[in-house]
Design a protein that fits this description.
The chain is built from seven helices and eight strands; from the N terminus they run E-E-E-H-H-H-E-E-E-H-H-H-H-E-E. By secondary structure, the chain is of the alpha+beta class. The protein has a three-stranded antiparallel β-sheet with strand order 2-1-3, with no helix packed on it. It has a three-stranded antiparallel β-sheet with strand order 4-5-6, with no helix packed on it. Strand 5 (83-87) and strand 6 form a beta hairpin.
Amino acid sequence: MARRRRRDGHLAHGSGAAAEDGEELIPVMRDEDTKKLLDFVRAKKDFSAIRDEALIRLYYNTGARLSEIGNLLLTDVDMNTQSVHLHGKGAKDRRVRFGAKTARAMSHVHAHRWRHNFAHEWHKAGGDTGDLMLLLGWSSEDMPRHYGASAAAERAQELQTSSASARTSDAMWPGPAEAQPARAGITVWCDRQGIELSRDQEQGHGQVCA
């Protein structure tokens, strides 16, 4: 459904792309449409459902632009005052309040993230899957299997990075044999600190290198 503003200043309803007098119609998201959208995301029963409900409610309560919500930082959200600091166009910042339901939805997002982090770190440290299921109240192995895979992938990435760093270090710092290659049949003169003298330096001031 869409609305247009008539010349007399009152709103008129319409369903076409434009009004009869040529004025463009403004799309309106009604409460029943928002409810249907919320019901749809809740049916997913996973973290994305919790995240999406918080986003929908935040948009609904604040009237913010897509970019304003997308660029939010944790420090922009104040749960004590139930408000959010929006960074608008042209550096025009503003603080907007949101409702209690939105605050609960956003709190659930953070709580779920901490729960995920707990499971991830448990597996990363080599914790037992059965113990994890007991601690987090899981009856299915699907969730611990998911976090076990993510922890294994992170361990593999850390091992690969460590191995690559060690190889680079070895290549940059050659051993003594590489630094001072043997030169058969050639007398090499060094100073008292064992540093090789150049050919144009007087050899009488040095000593034969070891």
